[in-house]
Queue: 2 jobs
Job 1
Amino acid sequence: MDKEEESCCTIDYQHHKEIFEQRRQAFLKDPEKAVTTHQAKIRLIKDHYKEAQVPGGYTIACDEPAERGGSGKGPAPLQYLVASVGL
């Protein structure tokens, strides 16, 4: 692994620990702020091609590859799931 690859994969655990502790303290002071709601409006456009509209004005496209009956216009649903684990 070269220096560039190493730097892209380094996690500053101390920084994350500090952020976590700040949020924890804020939630202890006001537990209502710890409650979040996530939503998306999903539209089936054609065959397997779908769009999700999420808060913030973002539109996420999702499709299946041609070999699975889609048109390949976007990542497959499972690709989003796998990617979300790392985000």
Note: Residues 21 and 27 are 10 Å apart (CA to CA).
Job 2
Amino acid sequence: MQHHSKMVLNFRLGKKTLSLLTGIIGILLSMSAFAGGTAEASTSPVSASVENDSRIYSGIDSLGNQVTLKKRPESIVIAGKATLIPADAVVLFESYNKSIKALGITNQGLGDFYTLYLSNVQDRMPHTVSAEEIAGTSPDLVIIKDRNYNSIGKQLEKLGIPVFAMSLENPEDYIDEIIELGNLFSEQETARNIVQLYESWLETVSSRIELLSPEEKEDILLLYANSSDGITSFQIPPAAWIQTFITREAGGNPVWADSAVTNNWQLVSFEQISAWDPDRIYIISYNKPAAVYLEEIQQSSLWENLSAYRNGYISTFPADFHNWAQPDTRWILGLQWLAKNLHPELFADLQIEAQVSSFYRDLYNIDDPAIIEELLSRFSSSLKTIE
């Protein structure tokens, strides 16, 4: 990111840092404006060509590229591998939802939220979509996960199509990129409101967790379970990723953090899991219900000697249409749920069902009781624990 990224709040500093967020947001927005985000401060303003629209549409993506549009984008494509991650950020800017003309695959295996939320988008593109296929839709703007930049982003730029890449892999990047997306859309106020919502939800957790002593924080292990050719493997996330952040901020000790030496999911052996012998284990699954892997664990004699197994503390990490332990908007729900699960006495007044309802209402403007009920039902059915 641009030079201001290191100034984005470090959530790990706790309540004191969070209380400074409002001021920091102002600094970030003004610095982004200096980089070309607003008409008043831009060194090379580019007026929109739409009549009576003098706004500037310019933001810095996760790769440090300044993306400037000549006018408000009316035809947006979000595509490539991991489409869900940038899509969930884009749709927070509701005024642009009707501008989304094509969308990549967002069903990870548990269902597709976007069949409910963006039912007007009929053009769905496979993960393997080519730059030429995307260009064929005549987009004003293409938004991708940054891992797709080399495979399709560069080619699209050669065709004269603006590309905005997003990472969103940790909370610091998440806040920074929401702000820059707001600059690109000339929706700085919307970006500010989104960030302030996250500030409020984070404060609910951090203000209580900071009261804990180190001895009160249990050893936690988050395991991403996946199966291929009938063989199940388990992986740990990088120390800098949002799954590790969620664990730490929820008042747990992520036992894998010092061993996560790569910048991607890392295979972990059962011998290593046994050596850590954490107090609690949470199973993450993105493409099928995590309960499937919990059943495998329960049927295997390997796990029986682990403390977490003996004490009934091997559980699934919650989901609705998508698992809450990934860098989409729902990571804040994952944090709140885990904090309450680990420290119920500190969060007796925190009702996760109510948080789910307010989350989708405040961020997605969903107030349809039938949709909320579906989301809550999926959440409830995703929760399983070793007996």
Note: The chain has two domains: 3-203, 212-381.
